[in-house]
Design the sequence.
């Protein structure tokens, strides 16, 4: 029966929550349909299950048989161990047996397998040659466990006592001196975590992550209560479980800090909470053994190899240096009894008495009574938490009362049963054929032979120690015991060990020493003593790439073999004999010299992606090569272009981006899965299918020609640069992968502290991480630095720097009372409009509270665009740009603002009528005034509203009446017209002027908030209701254009008496329709700079390594060659594609530009030596070029002859009218 090719799949019976399957229907289909000759599988019989994540019918549909009887199966596979009655004679079994450590609870199963002369393979023991497991669920355990503790955290916070309550209990005198309301001590906290469910409640891992991201947005926008902050998550260990846990944590707005900075963090937090009631991020801290223990000898530092060899020489310090600052401990470390505990029960009790803020513990490792002594019980998916009260040393099954909420679920991966089964099956299906068709394990690959604990009723040689261990008091043996061959290292030697290696676990110490030092090992021979008095013998091939490391390993092993007199151990039983062979040097050669084609990986398939993909994919074409060659001073065609890979969580989104773009490929990627991310970034693939098809179609070429062509002419497609267009919170994950794989990275997001911490790592890896490469930030930086540096070169001093930028509807699309539309979720825009701001004006620092931001809007008119009626809102912290731009000490005014339309002025109405044949009767409507009034009405409140509770009948009209305090009994009959609403708004004091109330009323009517239609049940707050209506009523149609307007104004004064100069630079861009698809101006001005930055990195034109912004001269200054100016590249690309709307720079306030449509910074773009660029302009039919090496000059374009300015061009009409009004 063994090796008959028939595979049985068990129905999991150990736990009611176990929904995983070792093989999914898709895996079964591949195994069956490929044929037994290829897969070794003839039939698959599946035990029926009503709870398995994949239904029985899905297995039937792919050719599996459904039957309770698996007696015909030669190989039976499951996730967990089967019932004893399912163990048949002469069969092979594969599952997580938990027997190789001689675990007592599973010895009856092992005895049954031995008695039935069966064969047992353990997934846990299928390892690579470097000792790492090939099949595991570790990351899914970390992900599920972290989501569950966040869910529990939300519930626990509702019942949480203020942290000061513990001090209150023990020191009333101390608490009385603080300015704290004692009634506040007993109140709970409502946090965004309360909306989270447990992991199993989500349909997929992606859905769970989306929920976490939503919580993160809430925290970033509205903050967490200061009373529970700083909220610090401690992650123990650095393995797959810890990495999975951190994957989830990183979806929140976060900062990782070193454990040594925890006291400083808490001291700073106390100062901050005195001035702020909210904290807008959480903190993470990853700790390993080095942070948990210290040597008993104060003269000795921590040595990992020594710690693993002699843990008794070390004392725990976790309770002194880490735990006092922990809010949540996520325990991901494997622990053995010989090591100090992470936190004992007594230590937790002492910490609690001293006011420790610990709220929750997720013991994902689930070592009951182990490293966390007070975790004395497992929990279950349906009851995942218990509460331990340290002060009373009692355990409870509720959330109310004092103490720490603890989770210790031992089957966490099953909460993501679908994803974990797919992941597991992908690995296992590669081994099933060998296991199902083999009766002699000597024919198996080494990694499967090592995983065989029992063969035909007998323990295999590697596991003959198990009977010895069953009689031992201890139950702990290292996971690496049945070891494996390493990847061949440069230096190798043979080490012979003899002694009580297994029954005293000395082999563990030896292997720990090797791994801790960074070495590798291969088990050459292993003989286990046949009785307790006999010694065991093992030969290991030990390797390292560094001779010094190998010497260190031998020294540590020698210390293990010769313990000192003061160790307090019995030398007779705890000593090993050591013999060391001769070191051999292995000649390691570099890999293939196959030439590689450049590839750029774009992660994120939003609106910004397509312009970037189009530009990159066009490289290599004749027209693109001409303008790019001018800039890069290289023959770009020698690359055969650039291959573009567009990756998205949803493959359909990526395919929509790449549709119709040559040299572009769509792939699916979950960036939170680090293994998939690294594989995607590191991929080296050949695009063979189109080439093979070409040769098959051309029957004049033989196969020999094909093979020669493939090997000699076709290079590999290798990713060299990654562009991340993901949310900013995801960039660090991608950046770390790029550092590990030595790939350049470009992002369009702000460079925050988490990215800056990677600067040294990036430099050491020899890569560039170029951030803020979009519009704002991005083009604004480059325009600003060019203007500032030009002023400094002329010995000028920046007196004032003012920058405005806005994404707006085009004039034709500004057809609503707000004169604004959303191309993305309104929630983000509204939240951004409620952030506090700070700037400097004439030497005085101005602070604007977030609640007052809309009311701070001021009227703005641009000299170059007098027809635009605009208003400006301060944009967050402008002062940081003083330091970034190097003008912090000289500029008395530093201001960055966000642009919105002020309203429909008479000039604006005239433009709309003349240019677009549109007529509106709306009066001047100010965006800031309206939004501020709506905020005071309560339409932006995020608090749950009673009228929106589930089960209640609620209409938009009834809800509006509630906000405007109109009698709810008459709400349905009320005549809620514009006049009535405006009068109500004014009478309630939501605005100071009647006109403002009218404007707000018009907006409310336009949004339909007065209508009798039902409000969806998903809306639980006024904020949600408003966002829903704005998303419906203020969206762009498929034919409407957006517009981007960027405007800098710099005032320069000179010490030598020269007159003060005013410099202005403006970028105006409109969205455009191509092939029936609208490409927004925002997408163009963000995607194109990011793509050009990738090109510069591909051509090694940016040589500085580390984390950069485009404020570095290497990026924006031409220097000695025109090729280095990314800002110029953007202009040239715009000329090449015809995408640019208008870009110009006016100097010194001179009125030379009055009748000119297109202005450029000529001093750099058209110096006398730039003949290539002159030719590019001449090809566009302009009539006159003025250029000078030493001073700015102007390009005059003939309006009648220039192809962009035909009579049918609406931009031309608009500019003509602008010029007429200006004159």
Sequence:
């Amino acid at each position: 029966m063994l090796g008959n090719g028939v595979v049985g799949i068990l129905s999991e019976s150990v736990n009611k929550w176990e929904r995983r399957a070792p093989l999914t229907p898709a895996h079964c289909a591949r195994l069956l349909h490929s044929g037994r000759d290829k897969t070794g599988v003839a039939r698959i019989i599946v035990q029926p299950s009503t709870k398995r994540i994949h239904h029985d019918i899905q297995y039937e549909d792919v050719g599996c048989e459904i039957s309770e009887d698996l007696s015909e199966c030669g190989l039976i596979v499951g996730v967990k161990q089967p019932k004893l009655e399912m163990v048949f004679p002469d069969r092979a079994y594969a599952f997580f047996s938990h027997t190789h450590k001689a675990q007592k609870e599973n010895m009856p199963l092992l005895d049954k397998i031995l008695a039935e002369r069966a064969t047992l393979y353990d997934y846990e023991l299928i390892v690579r040659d470097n000792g790492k497991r090939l099949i595991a669920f570790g990351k899914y355990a970390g992900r599920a466990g972290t989501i569950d503790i966040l869910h529990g955290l939300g519930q626990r916070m509702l019942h949480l006592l203020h942290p000061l309550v513990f001090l209150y209990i023990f020191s009333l005198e101390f608490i009385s001196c603080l300015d704290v309301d004692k009634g506040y001590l007993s109140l709970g906290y409502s946090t965004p975590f309360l909306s989270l469910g447990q992991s199993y409640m989500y349909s997929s891992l992606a859905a769970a992550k989306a929920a976490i991201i939503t919580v993160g947005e809430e925290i970033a926008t509205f903050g967490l209560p200061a009373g529970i902050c700083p909220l610090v998550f401690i992650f123990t260990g650095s393995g797959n479980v810890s990495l999975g846990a951190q994957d989830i944590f990183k979806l929140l707005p976060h900062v990782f800090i070193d454990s040594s900075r925890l006291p400083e963090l808490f001291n700073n937090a106390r100062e901050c909470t005195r001035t702020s009631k909210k904290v807008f991020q959480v903190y993470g801290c990853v700790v390993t053994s080095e942070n948990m223990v210290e040597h008993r000898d104060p003269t000795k530092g921590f040595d990992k190899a020594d710690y693993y060899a002699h843990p008794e020489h070390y004392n725990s310090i976790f309770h002194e240096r880490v735990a006092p600052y922990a809010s949540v401990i996520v325990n991901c470390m494997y622990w053995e009894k010989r090591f100090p505990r992470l936190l004992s029960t007594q230590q937790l009790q002492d910490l609690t008495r001293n006011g420790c803020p610990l709220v929750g513990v997720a013991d994902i490792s689930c070592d009951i009574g182990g490293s966390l002594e007070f975790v004395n019980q497992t929990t279950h998916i349906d009851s995942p938490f218990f509460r331990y009260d340290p002060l009373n040393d009692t355990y409870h099954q509720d959330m109310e009362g004092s103490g720490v909420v603890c989770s210790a679920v031992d089957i966490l991966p099953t909460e993501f049963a679908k994803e974990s089964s797919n992941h597991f099956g992908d690995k296992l299906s590669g081994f099933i054929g060998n296991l199902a068709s083999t009766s002699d394990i000597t024919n198996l690959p080494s990694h499967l032979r090592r995983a065989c604990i029992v063969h035909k009723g007998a323990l295999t040689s590697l596991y003959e120690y198990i009977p010895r261990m069953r009689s031992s008091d201890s139950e702990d043996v290292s996971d690496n015991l049945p070891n494996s061959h390493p990847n061949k290292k440069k230096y190798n030697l043979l080490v012979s060990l003899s002694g009580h290696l297994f029954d005293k676990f000395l082999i563990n110490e030896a292997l720990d020493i090797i791994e801790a030092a960074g070495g590798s090992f291969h088990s050459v021979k292993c003989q286990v003593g046949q009785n307790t008095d006999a010694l065991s013998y093992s030969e290991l091939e030990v390797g390292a790439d560094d001779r010094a490391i190998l010497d260190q390993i031998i020294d540590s092993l020698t210390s293990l073999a010769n313990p000192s007199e003061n160790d307090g151990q019995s030398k007779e039983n705890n000593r090993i004999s050591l013999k060391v062979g001769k070191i051999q040097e292995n000649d390691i050669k570099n890999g293939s010299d196959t030439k590689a084609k450049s590839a750029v990986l774009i992660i994120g398939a939003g609106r910004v992606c397509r312009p970037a993909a189009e530009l990159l994919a066009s490289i290599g074409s004749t027209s693109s090569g001409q303008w790019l060659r001018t800039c890069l001073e290289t023959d770009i065609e020698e690359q055969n272009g650039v291959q573009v890979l567009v990756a998205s969580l949803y493959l359909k989104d990526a395919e929509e981006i790449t549709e119709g773009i040559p040299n572009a490929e769509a792939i699916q990627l979950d960036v939170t899965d680090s293994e998939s991310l690294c594989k995607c970034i590191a991929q080296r693939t050949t695009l063979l299918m189109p080439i093979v098809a070409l040769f098959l179609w051309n029957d004049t070429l033989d196969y020999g020609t094909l093979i020669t062509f493939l090997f000699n002419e076709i290079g590999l497609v290798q990713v060299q640069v990654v562009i991340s267009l993901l949310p900013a919170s995801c960039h660090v994950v991608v950046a770390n992968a790029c550092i590990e794989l030595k790939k350049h990275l470009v992002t369009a997001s702000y460079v925050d502290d988490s990215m800056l911490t990677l600067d040294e790592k990036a430099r050491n890896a020899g890569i560039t991480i170029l951030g803020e490469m979009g519009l704002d930030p991005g083009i604004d930086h480059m325009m600003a630095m060019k203007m500032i540096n030009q002023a400094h070169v002329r010995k000028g001093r920046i007196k004032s720097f003012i920058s405005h930028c806005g994404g707006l509807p085009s004039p034709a699309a500004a057809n609503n009372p707000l004169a604004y539309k959303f191309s993305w979720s309104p929630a983000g825009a509204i939240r951004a409009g409620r952030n506090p701001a700070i700037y400097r004006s004439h030497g005085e620092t101005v602070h604007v509270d977030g609640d007052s931001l809309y009311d701070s809007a001021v009227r703005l008119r641009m000299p170059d665009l007098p027809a635009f009626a605009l208003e400006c809102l301060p944009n967050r912290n402008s002062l940081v740009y003083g330091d970034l731009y190097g003008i912090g000490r000289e500029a008395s005014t530093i201001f960055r603002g966000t642009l919105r339309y002020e309203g429909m002025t008479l000039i604006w109405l005239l433009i709309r009528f003349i240019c677009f044949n549109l007529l509106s009767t709306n009066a001047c409507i100010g965006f800031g005034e309206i939004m501020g009034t709506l905020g005071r009405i309560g339409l932006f409140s995020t608090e749950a509203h009673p009228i929106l509770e589930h089960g209640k009948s609620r209409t938009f009209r009834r809800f509006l009446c509630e906000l405007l305090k109109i009698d709810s009994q008459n709400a349905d009959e009320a005549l809620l017209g514009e006049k009535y609403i405006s009068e109500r708004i004014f009478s309630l004091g939501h605005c100071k002027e009647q006109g403002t109330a009218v404007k707000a009323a018009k907006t409310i009517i336009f949004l339909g908030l007065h209508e009798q239609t039902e409000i969806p049940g998903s809306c639980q707050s006024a904020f949600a209701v408003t966002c829903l209506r704005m998303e419906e009523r203020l969206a762009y149609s498929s034919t409407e254009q957006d517009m981007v307007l960027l405007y800098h104004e710099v005032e320069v004064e000179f010490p030598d008496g020269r007159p003060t100069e005013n410099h202005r630079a403006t970028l105006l861009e409109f969205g455009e329709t191509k092939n029936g698809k609208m490409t927004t101006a925002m997408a163009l001005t963000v995607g194109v700079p990011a793509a050009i930055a990738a090109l510069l990195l591909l051509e090694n034109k940016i040589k500085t390594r580390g984390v950069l912004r485009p404020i570095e001269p290497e990026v924006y200054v031409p220097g000695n060659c025109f090729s280095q100016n990314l800002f110029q590249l953007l202009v040239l690309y715009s000329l090449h594609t015809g995408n640019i709307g208008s870009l110009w720079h006016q100097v010194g306030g001179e009125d030379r530009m009055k009748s000119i449509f297109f202005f450029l910074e000529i001093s750099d773009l058209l110096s006398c030596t730039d003949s290539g660029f002159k030719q590019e302009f001449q090809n566009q039919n302009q009539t006159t070029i003025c250029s000078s090496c030493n001073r700015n000059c102007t390009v005059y374009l003939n309006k009648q002859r220039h192809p962009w300015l035909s009579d049918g061009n609406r931009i031309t009409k608009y500019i003509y009218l602008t010029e007429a009004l200006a004159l």
Q: What stands out?
A: The first strand starts at residue 6 and ends at 9.
